[in-house]
Design goal:
single chain, Rossmann fold, 13 strands
Amino acid sequence: MRKKVVITLIAAMTVTGMLAGCSQTEEPTENVSGETSEPTEDETTEENTQEEAGSSSVETDSADSTSGSPAVYMTTDISSDGLIAVYEALQASPEGNIAVKLSTGEPGSNYLRTDLIGDLVQSFDDPTIVECNTAYGGSRANTAMHYQVAEDHGYTEIADVDIMDEDGSMTLPVTGGTNLEENYVGSHFENYDYYVVLSHFKGHSMAGYGGAIKNISIGIASAEGKAHIHSGGTGGSMWSGDQDAFLESMAEAGKSVVDYLDGNILYINVMNQLSVDCDCDTNPAEPDMHDIGILASYDPVALDQACIDLVYNAEDGDSLVERIESRNGLHTLEHAEDIGLGSRTYELVNIDG
């Protein structure tokens, strides 16, 4: 049985309204005696049947966050124009060598298509799409094969592509972790001054879900580093280690990346093709829930939490919620907040007007 969500009533009602078409929700009314009326039975039921995502959020139409919590910008327009609009809401000014980190995806998967992301990628000055090899086999475990997949998926037509661990790994220190002391990333990681982390939000067979945190941890880790994270830092089996240690290690590896970049990073999650399976799967389950939108933030924890909340509040999100909870996927967010990677409390800013 799903747990109850610990979010404010206004956040739960607003998210539900957005999913129904960004309709407005009414504020509690004040009667003639000056007392605020109690929520209706329907409103109380709506709040009590939300899922336990452990977050707190408010929603605003303002372009700026006013709550003191990190802003997460959202559009329901899943198009090239929508992607550019949500990026522009961040008012970012990337400089130097710009890396666009995405998952190139296995053939047959729901990887991000170039007709969606191409205009944004090419809006940067001489960008490079970056990735690292996999540690599980497949079509992207070998550098030459991985470059071929990137070409087949159209990425080489919109930017240069760099498989960052083709020359091995470099080491980043992990501070505040309970599992990792070091994180091994592709050796080319240091060649870039700014990272635009472009993630396809979806389910994952081991992590429960994949979003910004997974993209900066497992995604930027070299093949060696991926195995290290999956083992929970023990160096043991990737597939039979402690589940919570793996989830915590993703958060810790992500923090090492963020610490190194010292603010020169932003995050965008695309919530389409919401399969329970990830883009490392050549035959993912067909999505059984509707597409939701595109979200962006400077805080990877807030961004992933906002996406989680939208899934938990969706009427057709049961399959993805079950996948997340069956893998204890929310623990990644819990640990990420505990070690200072980001905040699970956020302000959701709807840019659609």
